[in-house]
Structures are given as structure tokens and as C-alpha cells.
Design brief:
Layout: H1 3-17, E1 29-31, E2 36-38, E3 42-54, E4 64-75, E5 81-82, E6 103-107, E7 117-121, E8 129-130, E9 135-144, E10 153-158, E11 161-166, E12 169-176, E13 178-181, E14 184-187, E15 191-198
Parallel strand pairs: 1-15, 3-15
Antiparallel strand pairs: 2-3, 3-4, 4-9, 5-8, 6-10, 7-9, 10-15, 11-12, 13-14
């Protein structure tokens, strides 16, 4: 056997002995408008991203412009859940079991002070609740401050949830899928989403 081949064969054997060849991690699924994502606790359809305008009530007020993310969300659990908000810090996201808490790394950023307003649109008025087995329209709304123009597209990552038991609780509960990172946990990315931002429309 040639020396080069012998070295390669030996290296392969050592690798196999120490636990086998490392498999490349699975890349998060790229998704776009209309796709449906199974998040474990939620089944989510990516409806659209759009610009909406709330017209001024008087001539002394100003029109308000928003960028909205729109989802059709089904709560697959057996308890009513809050729609929640995206975490301001990634290392805090794993603590959430809300739908909006699963939205990660939204790009472009709307600024540190741009906390979104999230709600469930219902026939009887806006709500903060996702009821079991019910498909609801969820809107995550960011206000465009000053003369800021809306982006052409918006991208974000989405986490998922699993039913698991804790150290001090034998009853299974839904938790965000996350991996340990130092003193905290970071959510595992289930999907990467890119949506075009549609212009126009009243809030």
C-alpha cells in the first residue's frame, strides 16, 4: 500500500475508533411567504410582511407608519398561550414559550427602542391570547420613526419548542429548543425566513 494511502487509512481508522466522522449540522430550513412551519407547540403559516398606515385623527397629529409581520398561528398545546413579544436579547429568548418569543434576529433592526406591538386579530377585537386548537392571525408590528423608509424585505430566524420535563418537575411542559452556551442557553434555529415587504394599506 502506498505511504499516502496508508496514512489516510490510519487517520480514518483512528477517527472511527474515537467516535466516527462528525456529521455536518443540519442547516435551518429557508422559508418564504406562504410556507408552513411546524414549531412543535405552534403550527405557523407565514402570511406576509407589509407596510400599514394609521391616519392622523386630527390635523395636529401625524400619520403613523408601521411594518407588520403577519402569521396564521395554531396553538397545538392544551393551554391558552400569550402571543408574547420577541426577546430583546438572544440569550433571554429560551425562557419564553410564547409564539412571538420564537422570532429571533430580525433584520433589518428597527432600533433598540423599537419594541414591537404584538396582537391577535379577532372578529371581536384585538387580543393577546392564542387558544388551544384555534388558528389565529398574529400581527407583529414595528413603528417606523421619523422619515425612516420601510425595507424592501425583512428576514428573521424562528425557533421551535419541545415537550420535556425539568429537573424539579416530572410533568412535561413546552420549552424552547436550545443549546447550552456558557452561563445561558441559545435557541436552536428551526428556520430562516425572508419576506418581501408589501407597500400601502391602512392599519
Amino acid at each position: 500500500m502506498p505511504a499516502a494511502a496508508l496514512v489516510a487509512f490510519t487517520a480514518f481508522g483512528v477517527t472511527a475508533l474515537l467516535g466516527g466522522l462528525n456529521e455536518a449540522p443540519e442547516e435551518p430550513e429557508p422559508l418564504g411567504q406562504g410556507a408552513v412551519l411546524d414549531q412543535g407547540l405552534y403550527s405557523t403559516r407565514l402570511v406576509e410582511s407589509r407596510v400599514t398606515v394609521e391616519r392622523a385623527a386630527t390635523r395636529f397629529d401625524e400619520d403613523k407608519h408601521f411594518v407588520e409581520l403577519v402569521f396564521d398561528v395554531t396553538n397545538k398545546g392544551d393551554e391558552t398561550r400569550s402571543v408574547g413579544i420577541p426577546a430583546q436579547k438572544l440569550e433571554q429568548a429560551y425562557l419564553s414559550d410564547s409564539f412571538a418569543g420564537s422570532l429571533l434576529k430580525i433584520n433589518p433592526s428597527f432600533g433598540e427602542k423599537a419594541v414591537p406591538f404584538t396582537f391577535v386579530r379577532t372578529k371581536g377585537g384585538d387580543s393577546q391570547q392564542l387558544h388551544p386548537g384555534v388558528t389565529s392571525q398574529v400581527i407583529v408590528r414595528y413603528r417606523l420613526e421619523g422619515d425612516r423608509r420601510p425595507p424592501e424585505k425583512i428576514s428573521f430566524e424562528m425557533a421551535s419548542f419541545e415537550l420535556t420535563t425539568g429537573f424539579n418537575n416530572e410533568l412535561p411542559r413546552w420549552q424552547m429548543v436550545a443549546t447550552e452556551a456558557g452561563d445561558s442557553y441559545l435557541p436552536e434555529v428551526k428556520a430562516r425566513v425572508t419576506l418581501p415587504v408589501k407597500k400601502g394599506g391602512a392599519a
